[in-house]
Each structure stands twice: as C-alpha cells, then as structure tokens.
Design a protein that fits this description.
heterodimer; A: about 110 residues; mainly beta; four-stranded antiparallel sheet; globular; B: about 110 residues; 12 strands
C-alpha cells in the first residue's frame, strides 16, 4: 500500500512566522501535490511537482512556495503566515495515470 | 472551464436507508471521474472511479455510473451503515495530456444514525 505521511497532524503558529509542512511518500511516485481544504470549497490545488526540483503553480499559489529536493519529499512553505491561511492542508502523490493517494492532513492554525 | 458541482449537505439518513449523492461536472474533452471519501480525522481515500462513458465504478457497496449525456456521476448505496458517515467528494481529472490535476467538488457530509 502507498503511504503518504505528513509530519504533523496539528500545528499552531503565529502571524508572520515562516511555516514548513512536510510530506513524504514511500512509493517512488513522480507526482506530488499540496491542497488546502476549506468548508464549502472542497480541495483547492496550491502547488504540484512532477519531478525533483520541478514545480508548477496550482489554483491558489499566492503566499506559498514549495521545495522538492528529493523524490520522496515535498515541502510546503508559508513564507509569512497570515490568519487567512488557517486551514487543513493535504498532501498527495501519484504515479502515471493512477489515482492520487492522500496523507491524513495537517490542521494548521495561524493566530 | 472544468468544474464539479455536488449536492449540498449535510445528508442525514437512518441506517439501511438508500443513499444518493448527486454530482454533475463541466469538462472539455473526456475526463476521468472519481469519488473520494474522508472519514473523521483522516485524509481522503479513493472510493471508486470511472474513466469512460457508461463505466460503472463500485466499491464497498457504493456505485456510480459515468453518464456523458447528462454529465453526471451520482453516488449510490442501497443500504447505508453508521460507519459510512463521512464527507464524500466528487472529482475529475481533465483529459489534457498534461499534468494530472484533480478538480474537486465542495464535498457532501453524510451522517447515518442507528
């Protein structure tokens, strides 16, 4: 079974902090994704990566950046956290035309 | 553009009732369609999928049929259980030949009571 592991289930940070969310997958998948999930809006794609050091903007990239230095790890970075970035963040990975596999999510609160 | 519209929740049912959650889509070309489920405190799990018109996806007693003529992919289950209580997301992957982006609906919360 594919395992996608997000480093934290819950995280509380302060406005203006630089925040790192980490995601690791164990199946050598080429593609990795970061989404945020908000009530009534479903999941929205922030960034994705199709290879090491490669990244593409999703639908809502503003205020975020990403890093993929190794194939198994995809990091989401909030450069200067703001309260409107309080949300549930979900990481996913995928190989070829197979469905995406999701981690359990990180619930991030920005105070 | 590409989009997915789901019926608003919450949907509240008694155990053993019949479930339908409506999903319609707008897409260019021939998308693949998915239902994902999110149990409390967990990430999303793929429930079922269909990749072409008239395909029926099924899993754990749930079914959905890819209807191109009505651009729909409604989720059904004949007899729900309390353990089916979760949020259900309809999603599509556009046929683009490019990156494999998933587009989600807003989600429908299902609550099943004994």
């Amino acid at each position: 079974d594919v395992k996608v592991t997000q480093s934290s289930r819950y995280l509380v940070k302060r406005t203006g902090e630089k925040v790192f969310l980490e995601c690791v997958q164990d199946m050598d998948h080429e593609n990795m994704f970061w989404y945020r999930q908000d009530p009534g809006l479903g999941l929205r794609l922030i960034y994705f990566s199709y290879d090491v050091k490669m990244k593409e903007k999703g639908d809502i990239p503003e205020g975020y950046s990403v890093s993929r230095e190794k194939k198994e790890r995809f990091s989401l970075i909030l450069e200067s956290a703001s309260t409107n970035q309080t949300s549930m963040y979900l990481c996913a990975s995928r190989q070829g035309n197979q469905p995406q596999h999701f981690g359990d999510g990180t619930r991030l609160s920005i105070l | 553009g590409n989009s997915v519209t789901q019926m608003e929740g919450p949907v509240t049912l008694s155990e053993e009732a019949f479930l339908t959650i409506n999903c319609t889509y707008t897409a260019t070309g021939y998308p693949s369609l998915f239902w994902y489920v999110q149990y409390p405190g967990e990430g999303l799990q793929l429930l079922l999928k269909a990749t072409k018109a008239d395909d029926k996806g099924s899993n754990k007693g749930f079914e959905a049929t890819y209807r191109k003529e009505t651009t729909s992919f409604h989720l059904e289950k004949g007899s729900v259980q309390v353990s089916d209580s979760a949020v259900y997301f309809c999603a599509l992957t556009p046929f683009s030949g490019g990156y494999n982006k998933l587009i989600f609906g807003a989600g429908t919360r299902l609550a099943v009571h004994p």
